[in-house]
């Protein structure tokens, strides 16, 4: 009978049923109560079963089977602590009961007491090494504790003994997956799928392992199978979106993420991920909406707030972008990316001091961020602070020497300082990084031209044109080069080609007009300038160039009218104001001319010709002190300029030589404003020749042509913006 009791106890934990027999020493009355308890358990009346088992246990406290049965009933009733106590009593009475220890281990594990659970499982295995199934729960407990090697060892023994035990195989697969042994995990999952092809969890977990191996195509297939089994799990749609993104299937990924959000609309992370997906597809408005929703759902998530700022920035809403970045920085002053992007925004807003501060902060947070230093250089370049710009470009490129664009910008800054050797070196670096860079080659051609190597520049430009026959920027560079070499016919032909390529581009017609004007085809040039205005009535440059034609013809009323239209359209046009001053001077409106010269200098304080023109005008007004200052300013800006000699000559006439030492008591001669002795004949004010004031300088050449009469030079024609200018 004792042997029968043991057999029943062994099966108890595995089946969850109550043993149907007791020891031979149990009195009949107690045995009947025991069986009554079993009957109640089968009927689902757990409370009555507990009562009967407790009655028997009180009378026979040394019978382990009674305690095991009572523990089972208490466990089903939810009295876990009491159930644990009963299993402990049973084990205390019979320590060799492996299945009592297994049952106690399960209860302890359910209460989070994993170490003691492992101890009970281990004892059970020692007691019954011939029963591999006892290792299943031990393996699971080891996995939960993170002892993955031990978990795998135990679970492998179970699957070897019971190949069709899918629970053991699933736990073994999960343990492999936790260890990073993804292919082994996949192999186990695939064996389970053979038996359970519609097992949602197994398809899902296998897909996760495949994604860890970057096998996104197969992961996608498994996720779709899982969704076909149960599409109500929101997270699986989000995971499918991740797999699709990895394969570049952005549209499908967007729909999958929308499906996930449809099932769980309050998940801020998914709204943020959807926003990023939409950004990649350049759908700025819906992306912004998703980021706004994400921020509303989780205001503490700074990543979503940062991304909202980025979306605002891309949309051109720079104020809102700055606000977002500012809040991110307020939350985390060490967020280097937020400082960097806020610097970009401030740069675009032309708030250069603020941009400088942000880029400096970004570079302090991350000294290895070369882009922050090169953008600081770019900010100084936009401010016109060339030396600071060059210094920071070089610092940035010493940290990150792989930015070809930064090398090109450095070269352009060096060109402005006339450091053509340094510019060549920077461009060599740019071309070593990006040998086919069009911008680098165009800039190198510019260096050649500024060095006087027009033929070499032409070779570079023709080579570019051969590989980019319809590239307008290349055609413009080649046309300008040929124009500089007085190869007018070919230059005009290229400008005409540009017009054909861009028949609605006013810049193209303006450039063609300039080429025709230089070729003395004034009528055709005027037609091109007028066509440019027709295409864009707000375009100021053609008005300046038409004004230049009228000015060269001494048609002052028409030139005044054109220049006035130009400055009305573009109040920041330095040349427009300057040439309007020339036209007003030709019309004998000295006050108006003076005002326009000053306006030109208020826009560009380094515009040397305006100082020369002011000097001439002040001399005409006998305002010699201001004339002297103006000529000195011209020489300070352009010591070797086209009008440097005339400026020096005029200064010599306006400034008297030092007074010689005289005998004591002999008074010095009193000089008047014109520099002659009192009572003498003053020198003519500013007249270095007798040529009439109506003869103006040439409309071509830097800073005007060499005008021997000493009158103000005419500003050069308005060209298109230099290709590749920094912005």
Describe this structure in words.
The protein is an all-alpha fold. Helices cover 71% and strands 0% of the residues. The protein has helices spanning 2-15, 28-43, 46-59, 64-77, 80-93, 98-110, 114-127, 135-145, 148-161, 166-179, 182-195, 200-212, 216-229, 234-246, 250-263, 268-280, 284-297, 302-314, 318-331, 336-348, 352-365, 370-383, 386-399, 404-416, 420-433, 438-450, 454-467, 472-484, 488-501, 506-518, 522-535, 541-552, 556-569, 574-586, 590-603, 608-620, 624-637, 644-654. It is elongated and about 140 Å long. The protein starts with a helix and ends in a 73-residue tail after the last helix. The model is unreliable at 1-24, 659-711 and 714-727 (pLDDT under 50).
What's the short version?
The chain is mainly alpha-helical. The chain has 38 helices and no strands.
Largest sheet: none
SSE class: mainly alpha
Determine the fraction of residues in helical runs and give it as a percent range: over 70%
Question: How many β strands by DSSP?
Answer: 0
Provide the residue-averaged pLDDT. Answer: 87
Report the total helices: 38
Strand content: under 5%
Which properties best describe this structure?
single chain; 727 residues; mainly alpha; 38 helices; 71% helix; elongated; disordered C terminus
């Amino acid at each position: 009978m004792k042997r029968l009791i043991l057999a029943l106890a062994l099966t108890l934990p595995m089946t969850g049923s109550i043993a149907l027999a007791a020891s031979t020493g149990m009195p009949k009355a107690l045995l009947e109560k025991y069986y009554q308890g079993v009957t109640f358990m089968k009927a689902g009346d757990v409370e009555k079963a507990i009562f009967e088992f407790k009655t028997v246990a009180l009378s026979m406290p040394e019978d382990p089977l009674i305690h095991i049965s009572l523990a089972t009933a208490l466990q089903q009733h939810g009295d876990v602590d009491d159930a644990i106590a009963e299993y402990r009593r049973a084990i205390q009475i019979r320590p060799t009961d492996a299945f009592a220890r297994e049952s106690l281990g399960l209860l302890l594990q359910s209460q989070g007491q994993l170490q003691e659970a492992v101890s009970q499982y281990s004892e059970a295995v020692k007691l019954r090494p011939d029963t591999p199934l006892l290792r299943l729960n031990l393996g699971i407990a080891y996995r939960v504790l993170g002892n993955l090697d031990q978990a795998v060892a135990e679970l492998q023994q179970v699957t070897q003994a019971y190949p069709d035990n899918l629970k053991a195989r699933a736990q073994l697969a999960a343990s492999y997956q936790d260890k990073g042994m993804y292919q082994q995990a996949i192999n186990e999952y695939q064996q389970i799928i053979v038996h359970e092809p519609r097992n949602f969890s197994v398809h899902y977990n296998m897909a996760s392992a495949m994604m860890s191996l970057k096998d996104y195509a197969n992961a996608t297939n498994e996720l779709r199978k899982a969704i076909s089994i149960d599409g109500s799990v929101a997270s699986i749609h989000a995971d499918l979106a991740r797999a699709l993104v990895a394969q570049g299937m952005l549209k499908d990924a967007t729909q999958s993420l929308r499906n996930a959000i449809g099932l769980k609309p309050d998940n801020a992370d998914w709204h943020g991920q959807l926003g990023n997906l939409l950004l990649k597809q350049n759908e700025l408005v819906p992306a912004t909406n998703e980021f706004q929703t994400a921020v509303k759902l989780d205001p503490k998530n700074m990543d979503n707030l940062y991304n909202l700022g980025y979306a605002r920035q891309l949309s051109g809403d720079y104020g809102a972008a700055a606000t977002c970045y500012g809040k991110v920085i307020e939350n985390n002053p060490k967020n280097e990316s937020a400082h960097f992007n806020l610097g970009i925004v401030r740069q675009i807003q032309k708030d250069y001091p603020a941009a400088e501060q942000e880029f400096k902060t970004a570079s302090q947070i991350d000294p290895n961020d070369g882009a922050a230093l090169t953008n600081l250089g770019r900010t100084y370049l936009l401010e016109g602070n060339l030396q600071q710009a060059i210094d920071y470009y070089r610092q940035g490129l010493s940290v990150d020497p792989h930015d070809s664009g930064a090398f090109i910008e450095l070269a352009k800054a060096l060109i402005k300082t006339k450091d053509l050797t340094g510019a060549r070196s920077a461009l060599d670096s740019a071309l070593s990084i990006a040998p086919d860079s069009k911008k680098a080659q165009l800039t190198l051609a510019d260096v050649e031209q500024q060095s006087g190597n027009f033929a070499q520049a032409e070779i570079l430009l023709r080579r570019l044109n051969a590989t980019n026959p319809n590239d307008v920027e290349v055609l413009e560079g080649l046309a300008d080069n040929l124009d500089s070499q007085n190869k007018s016919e070919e230059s005009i032909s290229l400008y005409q080609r540009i017009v054909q390529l861009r028949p609605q581009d006013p810049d193209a017609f303006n450039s063609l007009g300039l080429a025709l004007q230089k070729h003395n085809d004034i009528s055709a040039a005027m037609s091109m300038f007028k066509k440019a205005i027709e295409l864009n009535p707000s375009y100021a440059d053609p008005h300046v160039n038409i004004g230049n034609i009228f000015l060269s013809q001494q048609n002052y009323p028409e030139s005044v009218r054109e220049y006035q239209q130009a400055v009305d359209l573009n109040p920041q046009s330095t040349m427009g104001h300057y040439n309007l001053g020339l036209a007003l001077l030709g019309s004998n409106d000295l006050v108006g001319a003076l005002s326009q010269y000053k306006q030109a200098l208020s826009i560009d304080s380094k515009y040397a010709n305006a100082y020369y023109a002011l000097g001439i005008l002040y001399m005409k007004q006998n305002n010699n002190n201001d004339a002297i200052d103006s000529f000195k300013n011209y020489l300070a800006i352009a010591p070797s300029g086209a009008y440097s000699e005339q400026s020096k000559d005029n200064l010599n006439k306006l400034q008297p030589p030092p007074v010689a030492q005289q005998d004591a008591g002999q008074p010095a001669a009193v000089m008047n404003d014109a520099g002659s002795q009192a009572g003498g004949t003053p020198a003519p004010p500013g007249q270095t020749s007798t040529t009439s004031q109506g003869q103006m300088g040439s409309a071509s050449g830097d800073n005007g042509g060499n005008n021997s009469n000493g009158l103000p030079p005419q500003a050069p024609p308005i060209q298109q913006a230099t290709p590749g200018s920094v912005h």
